[in-house]
Design a protein that fits this description.
Helices cover 35% and strands 22% of the residues. The protein has helices spanning 23-26, 68-79, 98-106, 110-126, 142-153, 171-174, 194-206, 233-251; strands spanning 30-36, 39-46, 54-60, 83-87, 130-140, 159-163, 181-186, 211-216. The longest helix is centred in the last third of the chain and has 19 residues, at 233-251.
Length: 255
Amino acid sequence: MNIHRFLPCLLILTLTIIRPASLEGAAAGSNISFSSGSDTISAWWSSPDGNGPFPTVILVHEWWGLNDWVKTKGADLVQNGFAVLAMDLYRLKSTADAEEAHELMRGLPEDRAVRDLSAALDYLHQLPAANGQKVGVMDWCMGGGYALKLAVARPDLAACVVYYGSLPTNRDSLAKIACPVIGFFGAEDRGIPVQDVIQFERTMLELNKKVTVKIYERAGHAFMNETRPSYNKSAFIDSWKRSLTFLTNELKSAG
């Protein structure tokens, strides 16, 4: 895996954290487990009040692992009427140390990660509280590439939201994507050049795929994460609004 795609994640700064949602909203969530092949894996589940079934979003974490920041984003989604399954691809490991995060990312087998995400979708198809026909995926950084890999592997996925994740280039792979895709990127992201984003969008459109790409000027990698020095408030607010609109249109629509 190309470490240069994730160099901006190496910058860590102690800041006063401003969160759009607190962990009080996420506290209602619970840790669950289900099977992935012969393994038992873990995830964090949270849903709105009531029995459902609810439109559901699978969250794929950054290279830091499943941490409180991911859960606050899950809490935001729950407040907007979605159930959330936040994946733990590192199998009960997370970190705030960049060197350790790099090692965790390098040690994650790609085929296992895709298998775990596919198992999560299978699990949601059987979960009464989840609307198995209305499941989307959202990701950040490292998770971005995996969300698109899930979209390639599973035509029954209903929506895909990508935040500055690595982009597939193989046309045969992109041709397998059946769900709408929306992606958000920073013009100053050193790991994911603007020309790569433009080429991804162009290829998807040539394949008659439903795709929307937004590139934010003066924004770099990890612009959504308010705990990082690269946080860009205006890009965060605009992209989050667009994400909620996209997920509402794709997962809450009738049919």
